[in-house]
Amino acid sequence: MSHNTLIISLFGCEHTFLKIPPHESFTFDLQRFANIWTLTQDGNNLKLSTGSGDDEISYTDAPGKIIATAVAGDESDNTKIKLASGDTIKLDADIKMSGKDSEDNNDSNYNMLVFNSGVSLSLDLNSYIIESTVNRAINIGNQTSESTEGNVLTIIGTGTIKGVYGIGVMGGADASKNYSTLIIGSGNGDDNITVTAPSYTVFGNGFYDGTGSSNVGANIIINEGSNIIGTSGVAVYNPQVGTLTVNGGTITSSTTAIEIRAGELNVTGGTITSTFTPTDDEQFNAIQNGNGSTTKGAGIAVAQHTTDKDISVNVSGGEISGVVALSVTNPNNRNSNSNLSIDITGGTFTGTGTDPVAAVNGDSRYDLTINGGSFKGDFRVTTATETISFSDLNDAAESDTGNIYFTIKNGSFDYENIIEYLKGTDNESKVLDGTIYIGESAKAALDTDYTHEIDDVPYYYSTEEAATADLDRKGVKASVGSKNYYTTIDKALTAAGDGGIVKLYTNVEDLDSAISIDKAVTFDLNGKNLKNASGSVFTVTTDGALTLADSGSGGTVTGLNNAVEVEAGTFNFRGGTITTDETNVTDDVAAVSVADGATFNITGGTIETEGKGLDNQGTSKINGGAVYSTGAQAIYNQNQMLKILGGLISGRIGIKILLGTLKVLGGKIRGIAATSSSEGDNVVEYYDTTGENKYGTAIYVNKSSI
């Protein structure tokens, strides 16, 4: 009959003590007793029993050391109870470990439950709590060269485990052995297990002899029904050679949810979240650390340890988020020939930061293949000298030495930098509701009537609402036709070509330079506003022919100086309102300025300003619309031809003529007196160049020009 053993250690000082040391284990014969054991605590005693008062074992403190006393059976006959693989230990009370050993030593081996018996057991929390206030709550194995092989603990039921650290899973020295395995949750969806700790809530650790030849044999499986919380440190930490598998549950940390520094990580499901919020004093980073975690702000962090072990990361499902959802870095500057690979075939990766907005931060030493999944945020690559945004990589996403940073075969992506790159690849692609789909994902994307191009990239939308939301999110400024949208007005003008129409999509009130018109183009305000707080909005140059219209209602053009400068070519004004900044009313400023040799025609719309409405030195024709000035002349004609065929001209002076020709064939011209809003009595007045303006005059003519 084999004798598998369970070592359970609970150490305290005044009230709670439990220990079965590795060399003082107790065995229980399951041929005699049931395989469900209850674990209770009573003062200094922690009892494991089958429910009968005779079939129990108690662990108590004795002078000078922790001892174990077998209550059942006769020790002289070596008749002892035996725990075996398949047994379940069920809590029947809260377990709290908060003291020191009997000699008042705060030894790290105390105040935790230790499982190092080489058998596979289940621990049913049964709605109770296991807590250590000075150590990890549970330890599997003992992280020495003498660690027992085959320790497996499956935690099931409902309950809470908490400690300074949560659960440690220890490896050993022999790479051929599986020393310890932790399974949280049965996988059937019936569990509700919370494990919480300030740091390293669930962690593995191998036995390392300094030669790099060991550090192995600790495995962790996290299933549905698990809730792993790192309140101020990494929630799941894997620095050893072993396999960490996440099939479900939630893993949350205020720093980094999962960090792997060696071994294998497989993610098939679950929600993995870093809630870290950058501040001015603390940003996302990965720091050098030879004995602990490195990264702050990642959903999943990959950072090779100083042990130079292979790393393999495989993600086929789950929701991963953080300032950087997947961070791959080299903080310890390792240059080993290790096999380093990341293979993504599914899952959702969301970058929550603003600088960076990164779904993935790759490292130039890793083979990173994307063959599925959904990515919300930029891609970046960290090399030995810099971090490169995806948009700065060339079409092959290669370095100058030919290293492939990313291999993208399939998946969906929502960040413009990635889309710009993917446009140049041979991958079949489609953008649906603002997300680009590659490969098989593209084939599954839906064709709809709501199909547009944004900056010449085709996008598809399932609904009109989805289209509008994505256009707004991408910062679209203007459109050309019904299908093509652009994030800058210059891009829209280029796309419109000679004779085209550009339609304003949204208010653009942050222009920092004038829009230059050097070809024939119609600009439709579409009821929106254009503003340049530092200069003119439009400049019409040689070969330019600008037609300004407003298919909506209330569209405006506002400039600090001349809102529209017609340096050459033609400006046709048909709709909207042109005005100047009220804080910059001078004799040199006019809402519309027409240079010698240029042409201006107004058939609709309104020019309205406190200064001059129109400063004409070219050829201007008024045949509709209105020109208003509340503080000066509505039109100042300095040269060439001014022809009035219709419309309304109204100012403190209607028209002031310095030089040139005025023909009035229609319309209404009025001057408003200085002291009232009524029209003045003077229809035509004459002045010399030294005379003051006579407000209330409809037409004011320089005598010397007659």
Q: Quick gist of this model?
A:
Helix content is 4%, strand content 47%. The protein has 706 residues and is mainly beta. The chain has a 33-stranded mixed β-sheet that branches. It has an 18-stranded mixed β-sheet that branches.
Element layout with pairings:
Elements: E1 36-42, E2 45-49, E3 56-62, E4 65-70, E5 88-91, E6 95-97, E7 113-115, E8 120-124, E9 128-140, E10 151-156, E11 158-170, E12 180-184, E13 192-197, E14 202-205, E15 218-222, E16 226-230, E17 236-238, E18 243-246, E19 250-253, E20 258-260, E21 263-267, E22 271-274, E23 285-286, E24 295-296, E25 298-303, E26 311-322, E27 324-329, E28 340-351, E29 358-363, E30 367-376, E31 378-382, E32 387-389, E33 407-413, H1 416-423, E34 429-432, E35 435-438, H2 440-444, E36 450-454, E37 457-461, H3 464-473, E38 478-480, E39 484-486, H4 489-496, E40 500-504, E41 508-511, E42 515-517, E43 520-524, E44 529-532, E45 538-540, E46 545-549, E47 556-559, E48 564-566, E49 570-573, E50 577-580, E51 590-594, E52 599-602, E53 606-609, E54 612-616, E55 619-629, E56 633-637, E57 641-651, E58 653-657, E59 661-664, E60 668-671, E61 682-687, E62 697-702
Parallel strand pairs: 1-5, 5-8, 6-9, 7-9, 8-10, 9-11, 10-12, 11-13, 11-14, 12-15, 13-16, 14-17, 15-18, 16-19, 17-20, 18-21, 19-22, 20-25, 21-26, 22-26, 25-27, 26-28, 27-29, 28-30, 29-31, 30-33, 36-39, 40-43, 41-44, 42-45, 43-46, 44-47, 45-48, 46-49, 47-50, 48-51, 49-52, 50-53, 51-54, 52-55, ...
Antiparallel strand pairs: 1-2, 2-3, 3-4, 23-24, 31-32, 33-35, 34-35, 36-37, 38-39, 38-40
